[in-house]
Amino acid sequence: MAAERLGRIRALMDKAEVDAAVITSPENRRYLSGFTGSAGVLLVGHDETYLLVDPRYTEQARQEARNISVVEIQESWTRVLASLAADHGWSALGYEDEHLSCRQFNRLQQELDAVRLVPLAGIDTLRAVKTEAEITLIRQAVRLVDAAFEFVLGRVVPGRKEQDVALDIEVFLRRNGAERISFPTIVASGPRSAMPHGLASERVIGYNELVIIDCGAVYGGYCSDFTRTVATAGPLPWQEEVYGVVLEAQLAAIAATRAGIEACAVDAAARAVIEKHGYGACFGHGTGHGLGLAVHEAPRLGKKETGVLEAGMVVTVEPGIYLPGRGGVRLEDVVVVREHGCEVLTQAPKSRLLCVG
Predict the structure, then answer these.
(1) Could you tell me whether strands 92-95 and 20-23 are parallel, antiparallel, or unpaired per DSSP bridges?
(2) How far apart are CA 339 and CA 341, in angstroms?
(3) Which terminus of the chain is more exposed, N or C, with fewer CB under 10 A?
(4) What pLDDT, on the 0 to 100 scale, is given for residue 261?
């Protein structure tokens, strides 16, 4: 597996005409080497690969990064990298332009001197198409959030703080096998549910309010992402109307998701429904995003995304409507792109606006 993945990045290196690639992002480092530590730099040459780690991670790196030379660094990694480049006679190095910081770039320039630094496009997209083994891990991460939602429904009641509900979710996930949460849990009630990323606050949940619950779990290194919206003490007519529009939009987008379709077409399917009902101005974000070792990765499902979906990609489908001062609704499922459609992994109920409390 690692050899095949390294072969693909070497193809990118050939295209960019560089001698080696410097990998600093944790997700790409793990994907290409198997190393799960939180710090380290992967250096991929055409015939050799080095993993640069400090003494905290040496033994872990040797166990996890098979067939890769582990180099223990006692000084700046940029200095060690420069020494390796000199030993191999490398004249051009590719780097992740979306991940390397300005400070790291400047240090590399100072240490490497005559070596040319070239932005290497497309490294993140190497992770876009998942193997069935990766999908199995995502499936388990999705099952965890499905179960967490079922567990927490009885705890989303008027009089409780949003933060308390979020804590219930996070404790449940950890106790049931999640390595960690994949992002800070969102519980946004009442007017705050009109904030797409309204993190759980000290606000007390009231009656006849919409509550958006957005959470994720990490299992085997892979993320899930999940959103459901519920109503407290009986939904009001306008809440049911908005929910119905979002559900219709989400189902339309899911129906459009298949291999060979442009990412923007999935977004357009959801957006057309919302605009038809007069809520177009209330849907300001994209319809979804890729999911894997990172909770947000390629591909993106948005208005201007012209990339074509491929079988094996895993994406979220999450349209929403947000009415400032009143509340909002979002529904989010994780789906696997297949040749003739998609497989919906998320199984939590959504056919109607659930009443809780």
Answers:
(1) parallel
(2) 6
(3) N
(4) 98
Distances in Å between the Cα of 185 and the Cα atoms of 147, 231, 303, 328 are 15, 18, 26, 17
Q: How far apart are CA 85 and CA 17, in angstroms?
A: 15
Q: What is the pLDDT of residue 193?
A: 98
Residue 345 has pLDDT above 80, yes or no: yes
Question: pLDDT value at position 307?
Answer: 96
CATH number at residue 113: 3.40.350.10
Q: With the CA atoms of 195, 200, 202 and 204 taken in that order, what torsion angle do they form, in degrees rounded to the nearest 10?
A: 70
Number of domains in the chain: 2
Instruction: Answer whether 243's CB lies under 8 Å from 219's CB.
Output: no
User: Average of pLDDT values for 337-343?
Assistant: 97
Q: Measured between alpha carbons, how far is 329 from 321 in angstroms, rounded to an integer?
A: 5
Report in angstroms the alpha-carbon separations of 71 from 51, 55, 75, 84, 163.
Answer: 6, 10, 11, 10, 44
Last residue of a domain, which of 126, 161, 176?
A: 126
Report the percentage of the chain scoring pLDDT > 70: 100
Residue with tokens 């193809």: 11
Would the pTM count as exceeding 0.85? Answer: yes
Domain span at residue 338 reads 132-356
Whether residues 253 and 350 share a domain: the answer is yes
